[in-house]
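Prompt: May I have another protein with tokenized structure?
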Amino acid sequence: MSFNFNHIFHAGLEDDEQISNSAGVYGFLFNPFQKSKLGLYSGVPISEQRASEAKRALIKKLNNYNSLKSSKTIEANLKLLSPAGANEGTFIGKAAIFTDTFFQPAEIEALTISEFMAYLEMASHATLLSQAIYCGMTIKQGLRDRYSQHKSNYESDKPGTFGGRLSNFSISWNDLIFVYTPIGVPSADSKSIKLLERQIITMFNPLLSIR
């Protein structure tokens, strides 16, 4: 399920101070398609070499994201039962789940310069329909402060945090979009707030949020 929030902040392209510091609901999306982050700048002629370099950079970013999406495992406790039903041993089983890649590098490499630029333009907007990497809500801490905390955790590779988990997949912080909606709340202890936080994670199924 995708987000439809009314504030969009592009990491690496805008000043963090522009983020509202009120309470709110927020999410992080992945957008590796912005031209300037691939070395393609408005008004600068794009040569075949520059386009090829941008394609290679994009493919690397998408490969990292694909690793994140496919990084899932199944874990189960198994019991060995005798014919009489007695438990003769317990085993823990774990298996990785492999999913098909959502893109083919050769298809990107085959695009002409004009086709590649059109692809980037469309893909950058379509990102807003993608599955969130992380989502949550903040009450006592402002949205800007929460964003800064996540960013600091990413930069320090802090274990047990969203930022730390994200850095493990070599995804650039500057390829993220921070989407949010400020909200007014009567109390940080409101049952409605706790209910909403739990439902947001269930509905949006963000990749790096912990339920």
Summary: Helices lie at 48-69, 105-109, 113-126, 143-155, 162-167, 191-204. The longest helix spans residues 48-69.
